[in-house]
Amino acid sequence: MSSLRDFIDKVKPQFEEGGKYSKLRSTFGAFETFLFAPNTVNKGGVHVRDAVDLKRTISCVILALIPALLFGIYNTGYQHFRMLGQLDTVSFGDIVLEGIIAVFPILVVSYVVGLGIEFAVAQMRGHEVNEGFLATGMIIPMVMPADVPLWLVAVATAFAVIFGKEVFGGTGMNIWNPALVARAFLFFAYPTKMSGDQVWYYGFDAAKEAGQVADGFSGATALALNGQGDASIFNFYNEFIGLIPGSIGETSALCCLIGAVILLLTGVASWKTMFSVFVGGALMGYVFNLTGACEICWCEQLVIGGFAFGAVFMATDPVTSCRTEKGKYIYGFLIGAMAVIIRVLNPGYPEGMMLAILLMNTFAPVIDYCFVQANISRRKNRVKNNK
Amino acid sequence: MSDVIKLKKGLDIRLTGKAETVFMQVALPELYAIQPTDFHNLVPKMVAKVGDKVQAGSVLFYDKKQPEVKFVSPVSGELVAVNRGERRVILEVVVKADGQNSAVDFGKADINSLSRQQVIDKMLEAGAWPYFKQRPYNVVADVKAEPKAIFVSTFDTAPLAPDYDFVIKGNEEAFQKGLDVLGKIAPVFVGVHNNGAAPVFTGAKGVTVTAFQGPHPAGCVGVQINHVNPINAGEKVFTIGVQEVVAVGKLFMTGVHDFSRVAVMTGSEAKNKGYFRTVVGAQLSTAVNGNLNSDNVRVISGNVLTGAESKAEGYLGYYDSQVTIIPEGNQYEMFGWALPGFNKFSAGRTFFSWLTGSKEYKLDTNTHGEKRAFVVSNELDKVFPMDIYPEYLFKAILAQDIDKMDQLGIYEVVEEDVALCEFVCTSKLPLQKVLRNGLDLMVKEVG
User: Fold this and answer.
1) Which residues, at least 6 apart from B61, have a Cβ–Cβ distance to it below 8 Å?
2) Interchain proximity A42–B387, CB inside 8 Å
3) CA A307 – CA A320 distance, rounded (Å)
4) What is the DSSP annotation of A288-324?
């Protein structure tokens, strides 16, 4: 440990101002602080500080995402073999291996492209590298269909990091959740590659050409089928566990629930936002059940598609959500309600979660404005009442 | 004392190194200093010259902006140095004590027979006016101001802070006398804690007593003001500490400005902890030298949240009655952010230490991370028990938006109120400094 520290101390001067590699200062700093918590001390304000920092907070998010990612890998393999009709003949290992082959490259592309841009921008601005993308870079693959071409992942990630985040000033300044910007970019820029039945299965085109697709196979998702799908697959149990087609990481409500427990136990995510999203979705689903506009049960609305994933991991992004506590209830509720409305009433977009969150990201500052303004008026009225 | 104001928001930082309520022997040092930097925006104008003989109560310098406000020597002796910093700013006006304890006699006075102006004049003359801090802005009070109230908090909830129920012992009469004096200037409000506070506080006469319950910053006078009689735009409120009230009382009782104080030595790196008798501006040498558990330490005049970094050759701050000694944190920690962290203190629950109950922690001065933009929401609100949105206020200050600062309540807060916000901030922002910049901007633009 100390020999590593010695090595870093030895090479450090070369990366500092005037050093040989001073242009790589941010990059060096990022790796150094990854290995060692810095030795900086408080000056001029408080003398002691809380042990938490952004690295720790983001680490908790990543930890919470891992169950969903692992399940996503398994499910990608599972759906692949289901498409081929070979589920009975393959082993668990085969399924996982196939899943890794499908998912791992997407993950790598997302991180390499995203972090590459982050490092470059930090270097240009002379800033430190922010930790925010470590979570975003993991979420991006998880909201992608398994069969998405890698070049599209690269383009979408680059777009999200540059136009979703860096143009606003980086982590903490962005208006929209960067991972959803990536997803929305693909959705609107490359609709043919991103919707339709096939994309949810890894290796679908190749299998079709080879005539390997199982007889009577239907590749649609639960949402596209509006609850009319094959009951052997699309039942509440499968939807909850997550053995249904969908984006890589979003299918398992169970894993999202585990993630939610981690996020809430560590206090990293706001329970107010999360809870309100589910309430909003359930209530709106129930209204549609009553009016007969949609046959998907209200409780099913909460476990299919990206609803649970969005509620747990994306609606709760503190930067793009409401920052006032009361605002979080409204913000969350409207996301849930809006997601179900878009699902049911807009046949063009079977999945409403992405758009609902992006929409409410846009309106979060307005909600906050109302609460802050109320505080301001309260203070003004105090003066009036005193006179 | 009818109702108790219960505060839920806040945080008690559980530091090791609390002092028992017993006195320890600390010799009085030779050197004493009044540090103009203890008073925000003060431009000192020297009166005494190096080499002059002074008595306790002799004028050392005055405030250039309001010449009536005099700063006097805490002891008798000789003015030995005027230490200056960058751009010749005066940092320390040092007096070497002669051990004679001779003091200027300002004359006894019967408070009841004095007018408001006579009381003010007497305080000004004796150099007791700087005890008043004024909100907004946290500056020495404006002599011409007509404050709507004077607030005294009789308990300190900051980490390892002195217990004023203990400190006040023997000075009960002077404290009440001091309150009587303050009452001549403006209505007085006294904040007490709800856990068996000393009768002199709970039974203070001629004032409004309010009890508070809750974690730090319940003892911060700003929080008490916000709940009892909040400051509105255009209004002014004075605040004054317990021992300063005693000094004011004694001034009117005896005619002598008494600068003796009780201070407490605390912190994990202080070998002997306890209360000791000292004098305003005393050099810390006799209390600190030979009393350290290790070499790599930080000596703080005040508490760990708001105190000033000092050293053994430094001096006790004008308003301070606490010395804290903690380890410096200038070491690297491998994968510091990734460890389970059973021994790390955090207001949140991202470290496992939240499972270990009410354990006390030995905290050092490490920042535990690098500066970032605001990311996490609601962490500042949780430790800020006022009807103010701290994050929005800070953002208004950073944007130098004067109207917004005004609307969001900058008049009500001073640095100590937001110290906990700075402590918990995940993004490691220097929030007390940010607020100070905002206050300075308001002074400049609004006045």
Assistant:
1) B34, B36, B44, B45, B46, B47, B48, B70, B71, B90, B93
2) no
3) 17
4) HHHHTS--S-HHHHTTSTTHHHIIIIITT-TTTS--S
* Three-state secondary structure of chain B: CCCEEECCCCCCCCECCCCCCCECCCCCCCEEEECHHHCCCCCEEECCCCCCEECECCEEEEECCCCCCEEECCCCEEEEEEEECHHHCEEEEEEEECCCCCECECCCCCHHHCCHHHHHHHHHHCCCHHHCEEECCCEECCCCCCCCEEEEECCCCCCCCCCHHHHCCCCHHHHHHHHHHHHHHCCEEEEEECCCCCHHHHCCCCCEEEEEECCCCCCCHHHHHHHHCCCCCCCCEEECCHHHHHHHHHHHHHCECCCEEEEEEECCCECCCEEEEEECCEECHHHHCCCECCCCEEEEECCCCCCEEECCCCECCCCCCEEEEEECCCCCEECCCCCCCCCCCCCCCCCHHHHHCCCCECCCCECCCCCCCCCCCCCCHHHCCCCCCHHHHHHHHHCCCHHHHHHHCHHHCCHHHHHHHHHHCCCCCCHHHHHHHHHHHHHHHCC
| Interface contact B370-A128, CB threshold 8 A | yes
Looking at beta carbons, which residues of chain B come within 8 Å of A44? Answer: 309, 430, 433
Q: State the average pLDDT for chain B.
A: 93
pTM of this prediction?
Answer: 0.91
Between A1, A40, A60, which is nearest B367 by CB? Answer: A40
Q: Tell me the per-residue pLDDT of A303-340, one tens digit each, with 9 for 90 and over.
A: 888 899 999 999 999 999 999 999 999 999 999 999 99
Give the CA angle between residues A288, A235, A199 to the nearest 5°.
Answer: 90
* Sheet-wide strand order for B70-72: B44-46, B59-63, B70-72
3-state secondary structure (DSSP) of residue A231 = coil
**How many Å separate Cα B36 from the centre of its chain?**
15
Q: Is B355 exposed, middle or buried (0-12, 13-18, 19+ CB in 10 A)?
A: exposed
Considering only the beta carbons, identify the residue of A128, A319, A375 that sits closest to B387: A375
CA B427 to chain centre: 26
CA gap B298, B312 in Å, rounded: 10
Residues B334, A55: C-beta atoms closer than 8 Å: no
Cα within 13 Å of Cα(A378), Cβ side = 13
Contacts of A12 (CB under 8 A, 6+ apart): A28, A32
Q: Which amino acid is at B62?
A: Y
Inter-chain touch B372–A376, beta carbons under 8 Å: no
Three-state DSSP at A85 gives coil
d(CA B236, CA B231): 7
The residue type at A321? S
Residue B178 identity: G
Out of A36-50, A222-236, B167-181, the most confident range is B167-181
Count CB atoms within 10 A of the CB of residue B430.
17
* Set of chain B residues whose Cβ sits within 8 Å of the Cβ of A54: 369-370, 372, 375-376, 426-427
Closest CA to A270 of A307, A324, A340: A324
The separation between CA B2 and the C-alpha centre of its own chain, rounded to angstroms, equals 28
Residue B409 CA to residue A383 CA, distance in Å, equals: 12
pLDDT tens per residue across span B117-142: 999 999 999 999 999 999 999 999 99
Could you tell me which chain A residue has the CA closest to the CA of B392? A372
Amino acid at B233: A
Q: Are A163 and A177 a contacting pair, CB within 8 Å?
A: no
Angstrom CA distances, B24 to B99, B271, B298, B313, stand at: 21, 12, 21, 20
Q: What six digits make up the tokens of A108?
A: 């790598």
